[in-house]
Design goal:
- The complex is a heterotrimer of chains A (about 200), B (about 210) and C (about 280).
- The longest helix of chain A is centred in the C-terminal third of the chain and has 48 residues, at about 155-205.
- Chain A is built from six helices and no strands.
- Chain A has helices spanning about 1-15, 25-60, 70-75, 90-120, 130-145, 155-205.
- Chain A is extended, with a radius of gyration of 27 Å.
- Chain A is mainly α.
- Chain B has about 210 residues and is an all-alpha fold.
- Chain B has three domains: about 1-65, no CATH class; about 70-125; about 135-200, no CATH class.
- Chain B has helices at about 5-25, 30-65, 70-95, 105-135, 140-155, 160-165, 165-205.
- The two termini of chain B are about 15 Å apart.
- Chain B is extended and about 65 Å long.
- With about 280 residues, chain C is an alpha/beta fold.
- Chain C has two domains: about 1-30 and about 245-280; about 40-235, 3-Layer(aba) Sandwich (Rossmann fold).
- Chain C has a six-stranded parallel beta sheet, sandwiched between helices.
- Chain C is elongated.
- The chains are: A mainly alpha (about 200), B mainly alpha (about 210), C alpha/beta (about 280).
- The interface between A and B is large, with 113 and 122 residues.
């Protein structure tokens, strides 16, 4: 059973890689199959990790019938597909968006703005490496922010500060590109590792 | 009236405001309201997945009905969907939970979902290599800077650079934790300010696009 | 000149074959490269290593198979580290498609160290609505995770007896393939003072350095390279270490591609400029 599984996995892996030659029915088959089984997986998941533990269990064992209210709100989201009652889905969306916005205001201020600004207020004490790094961080943060200030034309002081800002941004994007290459190659290593060590080598014993 | 935007706007206003108040006054009644509404939020969020599945199935059954281009692949999609759902139901009945190791459902996860998903994303390695060869050009100062940083980081983050000089990884780490970090922080502060603005606009009913 | 032009317009499928070869050969022959541990990974290791006896470590699986080669080796190394030190890993999941990956690693490593489910560790599975959940856990984890991933009530398991909220979690470690880690920092970290370490895919890692500098996270493990460093630290070299040679050669090849592509570009540009000059 395990061997059959590995062959299925290897076959599907090769179907996807066949796209590198050109788009073809094997790739399209694997792609559609992937979307289908992922959707099916979500459905089983929703039962096992949402409906069962968060609704059925507390209602059956602890009589928390009040949970039928969020269940109702959850179900009416599906009313989007029935034009006559589609307006009902707005209630659930409004509830979710309201909670999200409320959490967002406090979360962004407490979790991002204050600590990140605090961490930028760094000491510059004399000529040493730490002070130089701190200065670079301060200049980098401020000029990057100024680059995204579009309410005034980027001329004069704002012009050259945002010019410094874009320099920092380019360094950051370059680093992100380097890391993205690293990530993609790692994924390729993972797949080839599977094909070589789980599939090909066992074939030859 | 009941079908309009009035009730949803009131819901957003009330929930958003009370969540903010509960942050500062985490006691009754605000604290308990927060506790209950967060739990409800979590349950409702669970149903959004059903919305996605429902939408996908509708799209593809319509494609098959209308015999649109490549409709045969929509049959494959529905076949995959039904197969895993049936296996999932059988596994749930047999094991009590489909997610137990050894269930048919987990067999499908291991041998179908894992290879398909991870291979799909690993394809990008080939395309990024091809893009590096064809499109990554030092056309001006900014592009050159981006390119040089990318090369240093790519080189400095792999063990081969450590063999050449231990200073290369140290320099790479400096790029990551000083100039790179500073720019990303500038960007995230901007994003945070934007997100706070949008959240307030939603609570106050100025931003209504999510209701259309 | 002609050769450069021809090479610059080479069929992309040849590039694909070259990259595949450069990854496959080192994977087969496994040449060894020295792996030096970087500061953010060392700090991530120290944060775990210096925890008090019997510490509860919450591990959040916020990735799926698309990032498996980057984060799964770290998860296994981390679990080994936790079990070596007799800590109690508590696994939770925020990315639905990744849940079984957590289960697999936990079962594999727990068996290696003879650890017992429910006494030494637990797997709570997934619950939806992560932002709400992260705030909610600050009050009582049972509001969301009243049962484990199998559907059994957690009251059954002694490991959960004294765990109610973040006060009972000594360290939270998020394995991140997206922005969920930022949300952990924003809510569990800022609001409830939870100590946090993040392990991220290489794509997300650059976006976490500002949290590391600000002290909002205590350690940062980035990509497969970070996982390899952690494997070295716990003295269990495995897949990530094995992948480093292939990673090195592939990076060198891509750098060569960029350099060659640019040489071709400048040669072409010079030629065009000359031609323009001739017309004038």
């Amino acid at each position: 059973m395990i061997t059959i599984g590995i062959w299925i996995a290897a076959g599907l892996t090769l179907c996807i890689y066949s796209f590198l030659y050109k788009d073809n029915p094997f790739y399209k088959f694997a792609e559609s199959f992937y979307v289908g089984i992922s959707a099916g997986y979500w459905l089983i998941y929703t039962y096992a990790y949402v409906i069962q533990p968060m609704l059925i269990e507390p209602i059956r064992n602890r009589g928390e019938f009040v949970l039928l209210i969020p269940a109702f709100f959850g179900l009416i989201m599906l009313s989007r597909w029935v034009p006559k009652i589609a307006w009902l889905s707005r209630w659930s969306i409004a509830f979710m968006v309201g909670i999200g916005a409320g959490l967002g205001v406090t979360g962004y201020i407490q979790g991002f703005l204050i600590p990140q600004i605090q961490a930028t207020i760094l000491p510059i004490t004399g000529f040493n490496i730490t002070s130089l790094n701190n200065l670079i961080i301060i200049v980098g943060v401020i000029t990057t922010l100024l680059y995204f200030y579009f309410s005034k034309e980027h001329k004069g002081i704002l012009g050259w500060t945002s010019r410094i800002g874009i320099t920092f941004i380019m360094i950051a994007f370059g680093a992100s590109f380097g890391y993205t290459v690293m990530a993609r190659i790692s994924l390729l290593i993972g797949r080839f590792y599977f094909l070589i060590y789980d599939w090909i080598i066992p074939i030859f014993g | 009236m009941i079908k309009g935007k009035g009730i949803p706007l009131a819901i957003s206003f009330l929930t958003g405001t009370i969540i903010i108040i509960a942050f500062f006054i985490p006691h009754a009644p605000f604290g308990s309201f927060e506790e209950i509404s967060l739990r409800w939020y979590s349950i409702i969020a669970g149903f959004t997945m059903l919305l996605g599945v429902d939408s996908l199935l509708r799209l593809h059954t319509n494609k098959i009905k209308r015999k649109e281009n490549h409709w045969a692949y929509s049959i494959v999609l529905l076949f995959g969907f039904l197969l895993i759902v049936i296996v999932g139901i059988i596994s749930t009945i047999r094991y009590g939970n489909a997610f137990l190791t050894g269930s048919g459902f987990m067999y499908m996860y291991d041998n179908m979902i894992i290879p398909l998903q991870s291979t799909m994303f690993s394809l990008l390695a080939f395309f990024i290599a091809s893009a590096a060869y064809r499109a990554f050009r030092a056309r001006n100062f900014d592009a050159t800077l981006l390119l040089i940083t990318a090369i240093i980081v790519m080189f400095g983050r792999v063990p081969i650079s450590e063999m050449i000089s231990p200073k290369i990884p140290i320099f790479t780490e400096w790029i990551m934790s000083v100039p790179q970090m500073a720019a990303k922080r500038g960007i995230i502060i901007g994003i945070a300010l934007g997100a706070i603005g949008v959240s307030l606009r939603i609570i106050l009913g100025i931003e209504r696009s999510y209701l259309s | 000149m002609n050769i450069i032009k021809k090479l610059a317009n080479i069929d992309r499928r040849i590039i694909f074959i070259v990259i595949a070869i450069v990854v496959i050969i080192p994977l087969i022959f496994k040449p060894k490269f020295p792996i030096v541990v970087s500061e953010p990974v060392q700090k991530a290791y120290d944060a775990v290593n210096n925890l008090p006896e019997g510490a509860n470590v919450m591990i959040s699986i916020d990735y799926d198979a698309a990032s498996m080669p980057e984060l799964q080796p770290y998860l296994e190394a981390l679990l080994s580290h936790c079990f070596m030190k007799d800590f109690h890993p508590i696994l939770i999941v925020q990315w639905q498609l990744g849940a079984p990956l957590g289960t697999q690693a936990l079962e594999k490593i727990a068996a290696e160290y003879n650890k017992e489910y429910g006494i030494d560790y637990i797997n709570l599975g997934y619950r939806p609505g992560y932002v709400a959940q992260m705030v909610g856990i600050g009050r009582e984890i049972r509001t969301y995770f009243n049962s484990d991933y199998k559907g059994d009530l957690i009251e059954k398991y002694p490991v959960m007896n004294n765990i109610h909220n973040y006060d009972d979690i000594d360290l939270l470690i998020g394995l991140e393939a997206g922005a969920t880690g930022q949300v952990w920092v924003q809510y569990a970290g800022a609001r409830f003072d939870q100590r946090i370490v993040l392990a991220l895919t290489a794509v997300s890692a650059p976006d976490a350095y500002f949290f590391f500098q600000s002290g909002q996270i205590e350690g940062l493990v980035g990509g497969m390279k970070g996982a390899a460093e952690y494997e070295i630290l716990v003295d269990k070299p495995d897949m990530a270490v094995a992948g480093m040679a292939a990673q090195s050669f592939a990076h060198m090849l891509i750098i060569l591609f960029i350099v060659f592509g640019n040489i071709a570009y400048f040669v072409d540009k010079r030629k065009k400029n000359k031609a323009k000059g001739g017309i004038k």
